[in-house]
Design brief:
By secondary structure, the chain is an alpha/beta fold. The chain contains 20 helices and twelve strands. The chain has a seven-stranded mixed β-sheet with strand order 3-2-1-4-5-6-7, with helices on both faces. Strands 8-11-12 form a three-stranded antiparallel β-sheet. Strand 2, helix 2 and strand 3 form a beta-alpha-beta unit. Helix 10 runs antiparallel to helix 11, helix 15 crosses helix 18 and helix 15 crosses helix 19. The N and C termini lie far apart (about 75 Å). The relative contact order is 0.09.
């Protein structure tokens, strides 16, 4: 009798193929299936030839090859394809079998599927997998969410195939129940959006304000990716590498020939939508999403560039050198701000959905394998391990000290961007997030509170005194609410009782 497969994998696109090869290289026998058999056959006769990978062409055949309890990983497009495969698999499975969704599914879909499959007696894990093709093949960061007993069925396998950080720890951990894994992966991707936009805006300032060519900018990024540099990260590394690439036909830098249109698959948008639902500000991630949307409206931008004039002031001489120095610290502060926004969203979701997220463990598994892997993730993980109840990442002593001492660097980089006509939505929002967070009295909010009461009688709270940010409270500790009769002579104020 043929030896059974340890795990089955459905979906033979690049991530599915790479994960199958990764699993096989770690000693696992893998059964594979794809809706169109041609892709399965091409894989079996190509990179999987001679390996412990079993190609199958019918779902019943696929199921029959698996040892029990069966473990099946879906690597298919999010949405309807996942539901379709689940419906096809359920009649073929037994109680205690496990389905793993390794795609970028929306976390609320994962929560629904967990409930549905639990009623059928089938275990389910929504698993975020980050690292792209290279990560899937050599070791990704893995974010599984579901019942603990479901995770136990794949804990060793996931640990074996995950990336290893410099200290040898695998980049995988149990995230939490239900949709926790996919939620964390979604926010990971939102942070990724913000990080990419911040780096891109910084490069744009160098190009327009400092008149540097793409090769010079790449050299700066390469320097920033030095061994002990606080900016050292995968995204800085690939920015330096890709910006040095030249087009073979013309010899021009490839980045200067690439169209200024950035597409997206939706996880960044989901992050912003969730933040709106949970009332958590994530302006830098939102700015990155909006910038990608603006990039896609190429025709409109071409028309408007002929109508609106922007400033084009260059930074020269000693100020050029000074701005390059400032930009290093400015980008680091902006990245801290963006990560702080993502961490705040994870904290809010943990409370709202009962995920019980451990932010220290989550940032620890992001240190290798994933797209946002970066040197300063060690510092973030340590901050949450030392104080899991941090009100904000920016409250961690190491980060708060650096930001307080160097925030002016970010302000000056933003000023140089605007003087050169460079939009800096992400950099500006990163600065403004910090500024709002550190403001005990937001005068704009005081003005808006009065506006709302004036036109809609919505009421307002009061502070103890002018310049005193503390709120007036009643004996039971609640904030006291007031309303002014704006259209009555004398404008009497009354306390609102509820």
């Amino acid at each position: 009798m043929a030896e059974k497969a340890n795990i089955g994998l459905i979906g033979m696109e690049v991530m599915g193929r790479s994960l199958a090869l990764n699993m096989e290289s770690k000693g696992y026998r893998v059964a594979v299936y794809n809706r169109t058999g041609e892709k399965t056959k091409a894989f079996a006769e190509g990179s999987a030839r001679g390996k412990k990978i079993i190609p199958t062409y019918e779902l019943k055949e696929f199921i029959a090859t698996l040892e029990r309890p069966r473990r099946i990983m879906l690597m298919v497009k999010e949405g309807a394809p996942v539901d379709s495969f689940i419906e096809q698999l359920v009649p073929l499975l037994d109680n205690g079998d496990l389905i793993i969704d390794g795609g970028n599914s929306f976390f609320k879909d994962t929560m629904r599927r967990c409930t549905y499959l639990e009623e059928k007696g089938i275990l389910f894990i929504g698993t975020g997998v980050s690292g792209g093709e290279e990560g899937a093949l050599k070791g990704p960061a893995i974010m599984p969410g579901g019942k603990p007993e479901a995770y136990q069925l794949v804990e060793k396998l996931f640990s074996d195939i995950a990336a290893r950080a410099y200290d040898g720890l695998p980049c995988v951990t149990y995230i939490g129940p239900s949709g926790a894994g996919h939620y964390v992966k979604m926010v990971h991707n939102g942070i990724e959006y913000g990080d990419m936009e911040l780096i891109g805006e910084c490069a744009w300032v160098f190009k327009n304000a400092l008149h540097m060519d793409s090769g010079e900018i790449a050299d700066i990024m390469l320097e920033w990716n030095g061994k002990d540099d606080i900016l050292r990260s995968y995204l800085i590394e690939i920015t330096a590498d890709s910006m040095k690439e030249r087009e073979k036909e013309t010899g021009e830098f490839l980045v200067d020939r690439v169209a200024d249109i950035t597409r997206m698959k939706g996880t960044g948008t989901w992050t912003v939508q969730s933040a709106l639902e949970l009332l958590v500000p994530v302006p830098t991630i939102a700015a990155a999403v909006f910038s990608r949307e603006m990039s896609q409206d190429k025709d409109l931008r071409l028309k408007m560039s002929k109508i609106l004039d922007l400033p084009h002031r260059k930074t020269k001489g000693p100020m050029k050198k000074r701005l390059l120095e400032l930009a290093h610290d400015a980008l680091y502060i902006a990245k801290i701000s963006s990560y702080a926004q993502g961490m705040a969203l994870l904290q809010a979701a943990s409370r709202e959905y009962g995920f019980n997220l451990n932010l220290g463990n989550i940032t620890r598994i992001w240190r290798a394998g994933c797209i946002i892997r970066a040197q300063f993730l060690d510092e973030i993980a340590q901050a949450y391990q030392e104080n899991p109840q941090l009100p904000s990442l920016l409250a961690a002593p190491k980060f708060s000290k650096f930001v307080s001492e160097n925030l002016e660097s970010l302000a000056q980089l933003i000023a140089a961007a605007h003087q050169a006509g460079v939009p800096a939505l992400a950099l500006t929002s990163a600065y403004d997030y910090i500024a709002q967070l550190a403001t005990p009295l937001m005068f704009s909010a005081q003005v808006a509170a009065l506006q709302r009461d004036y036109f809609g009688a919505h009421g307002y709270f009061k502070v103890v005194g002018s310049g005193d940010p503390n709120l007036l409270k009643s004996a039971d500790g609640r904030w006291r609410e007031f309303h002014t009769e704006w259209l009555v002579n004398g404008r009497p104020e009354r306390e609102v009782t509820k």
